[in-house]
From TrEMBL:
<dbReference type="InterPro" id="IPR036866">
    <property type="entry name" value="RibonucZ/Hydroxyglut_hydro"/>
</dbReference>
<feature type="domain" description="Metallo-beta-lactamase">
    <location>
        <begin position="16"/>
        <end position="205"/>
    </location>
</feature>
<dbReference type="InterPro" id="IPR050855">
    <property type="entry name" value="NDM-1-like"/>
</dbReference>
<protein>
    <submittedName>
        <fullName>MBL fold metallo-hydrolase</fullName>
    </submittedName>
</protein>
<dbReference type="GO" id="GO:0016787">
    <property type="term" value="F:hydrolase activity"/>
</dbReference>
<dbReference type="Pfam" id="PF00753">
    <property type="entry name" value="Lactamase_B"/>
</dbReference>
<dbReference type="InterPro" id="IPR001279">
    <property type="entry name" value="Metallo-B-lactamas"/>
</dbReference>
<keyword id="KW-0378">Hydrolase</keyword>
Length: 299
């Protein structure tokens, strides 16, 4: 793990999941906490080596790879924790994530892993869009939904900490189908970020870039390609349509995704359903029931 400086107050720890850091006088704010205790221990070690304080934590969204280290942080440091509403409910009750991914059923033991369910944490303050004063720094809190229901990003000194609102192109091609819960909000968020007048942006997975707009545009194009491919699959089946389960299977096959466990299946099913839901909202496809199966056809 590497601690990178963006300017005299904005930093980030580069890793599989990036963790932001902002200093204001004797105060230090971590933006997300990594996936587990081992990750946050490395962060604390680097902060100590660089004589940087840690007093606050902002969790951008309640996915375990972004908050899994927070419980250890709260146990070992005197930390004041911010989180967006709704996301905070999951942070306090992490079983909610595998629960909703499993359609509200009690998740199987194999689904209760550190990738889907971190340890519960305390949230001291739920944030809404607007401004927070952090020491002498003004932090702009911006809702960036789509990847999760109420994900937030932060702007400090014209630097955007974008969480998982967009991904590096390398990450897009690595995961093939990005995890989203709302394709419409995802595209709206990407267009919002593209218009932002920031000196640079850091995604949750990828590199800090000053020309981040190009990467954001690549994300928009990628999502539209997935939408087009799903539309084409459904159009080809005309009146008989396609079952929801078959659609998930065919989309994974089209994008060279191999589902190796139930957790992966739940995640990809959710993302693919999000794209299909967008097409329903746009009036391009419709859902119907046949032989007690959920099916999808073109309109």
């Amino acid at each position: 793990m590497i601690l990178n400086s963006i300017n005299d107050c904005c930093y980030y720890f580069q890793g599989a999941v990036n963790i932001g850091y902002v200093r204001s006088g004797e105060n230090g704010l971590l933006i997300d906490a990594g996936i587990d205790k081992a990750t946050i221990k490395k962060v604390l070690k680097l902060l100590k080596e660089n004589e940087l304080p840690v007093t606050h934590l902002f969790i951008t969204h309640a996915h375990a790879d972004h908050y899994g280290g927070a419980a250890y942080l709260q146990k070992t440091e005197n930390i004041y924790t911010f989180a967006p509403a709704i996301e905070s409910a999951i942070l306090r009750n992490p079983i909610l994530e595998p629960l909703y991914l499993f359609q509200g059923n009690m998740p199987l033991p194999e689904m209760r892993n550190k990738f889907l369910e971190g340890e519960p944490i305390d949230v001291d303050e739920e944030v809404a869009e607007g401004y927070l004063m952090f020491g002498e720094k003004e932090i702009k809190c911006i809702a960036l939904p789509g990847h999760s229901i109420n994900q937030f990003g932060l702007i400090i000194d014209e630097v955007l900490y974008a969480a998982d609102a967009y991904f590096s192109e390398e990450q897009l091609h690595k995961h093939k189908i990005p995890f989203i819960i709302d394709a419409k909000s995802t595209l709206k968020t990407l267009k919002l970020i593209k218009r932002m007048n920031c000196v640079g942006a850091l995604p949750g997975h990828g590199q800090y870039e000053t020309s981040f707009q190009e990467t954001v545009e690549a994300n928009i194009t990628y999502h539209l390609e997935i939408l087009d491919s799903i539309q084409s699959m459904i159009d080809e089946r005309k009146e008989e349509g396609i079952s929801h389960e078959n659609l998930v299977s065919l989309v994974c096959e089209k994008w060279s995704v191999e589902l190796k466990n139930i957790s992966m299946w739940m995640l990809f099913r959710t993302a693919i359903t999000s794209y299909a839901t967008y097409l329903v909202a746009e009036g391009k496809i419709e859902l119907f029931l046949s032989d007690n199966k959920l099916r999808i056809k073109s309109k």
